[in-house]
Amino acid sequence: MDTRSAIAVLDGPVTLATVDIVVPVLNEQRALPGCIRTLHAFLDDSFPLPWRITIVDNGSIDGTWRVARGLSREFPQVYARRLETRGRGAALKAAWRDSPADIVAYMDVDLSTGLGALFPMVASLASGHSELAIGTRLARGARTRRSLRRELVSRGYNALLRYGFGAGFSDAQCGFKAARTDVIRPFMDRVEDDGWFFDTELLLLAEHNGLRVHEVPVDWVEDLDSRVRIVRTAVEDLRGLARVARSMSTGTAALKVAKETELTPTHPDAVVARPPARFASFAVLGVASAVLYALLYLLSRELWSPAAANLAALTLTGFANAEARRWTVNLLGGHRTTPHARAALVFLTDYAITTMALHGLPPGERLSEVATVAGTYCLLTLLRFWWVPKR
Q1: What is the dihedral angle through the alpha carbons of 34, 38, 39, 45, rounded to the nearest 10 degrees?
Q2: Residue 10 domain-assigned?
Q3: How far apart are CA 215 and CA 49, in angstroms?
Q4: What pLDDT, in 10s, does the model give residues 41-96?
Q5: What percent of the chain lies above the pLDDT cut of 90?
Q6: Are 70 and 162 part of one and the same domain?
Q7: Number of structural domains, the chain?
Q8: Can you tell me the distance from the alpha carbon of 56 to that of 83, in angstroms, rounded to the nearest whole number?
Q9: CATH classification at residue 209
Q10: Which of 17, 25, 217, 322 could form a disulfide with 102 if both were Cys (CB 3.0 to 4.6 A apart)?
Q11: Global pTM value
């Protein structure tokens, strides 16, 4: 099915908002037919708005592209396109930028998210209630089945976004999102990531520029054959967060958003409302220093007692943290006013509280020790934000 005929499906006499549902795929020749047939049947039976499905094959080396073309010939409302660039973000940028629909959405090919949440998510956009809508596995009313490891990683990551960036959304990485095309299209050139961090970067930039994000609780079942590499993805996400924090701090994350469209006006405070960039930078540095502190403690613990290892880790982390904060303050155009006496008091307080937290733990429980001191350090870092002068 070519682009012209795909657009014709959406260009009928109806006045309802049209919806383009994108399914990005990479080497999914086995999963793709079942996904598209299930999704097509659901939309055909119960979705009240004009729709089409767009399959984006971004760099598959198996038979995925052949399968996608076959599905587009089988179903008139299925459109297939191929990219050589890999990455979910790259697929969504291309499809959302070129879509003829009023509303663009996407979902993962494994259909882990229940399709019953699709219309409530899209309806908030068609009604003008919001400009961006996401499915969430962490809000009240959501039902999920996944491993404890993924649950802890997800909750920790989203807590970092809430407390570090002031994010109002609860689940950045659920593969179930929709947006108003006219509003979101300019963001496709601003979002830098082409991989898994695309979702987080888009949401942070959207809120930073005053867009309203609507959340819909979803039913979600973990795909045990998932291609996501949690550790590698987490490292890439931390790098992405540092980059976004810097862009917010320097003002380059600001984007002029259209205020009048065919559906409804966008948020009147677009471009003005944004979370505190200084808090974002502080949080990113705080997380990095907490990780460094935990690693140094674990290494030092091989040689010394808990108290001595804690002192060594805090001292080395303090030096590294001071240099990082000096760079951040210079970047933001501020100046340091924290006197040496206060810095010393902060250090002694950190050491006293983290050492007290270690007291009473069973001897030899290294992981428990690291979790205790790292958790305490993170809490103290957050509290210091409100006490230490910012300029």
Answers
A1: 160
A2: yes
A3: 20
A4: 999 999 999 999 999 999 999 999 999 999 999 999 999 999 998 999 999 999 99
A5: 43
A6: yes
A7: 2
A8: 7
A9: 3.90.550.10
A10: 17
A11: 0.66
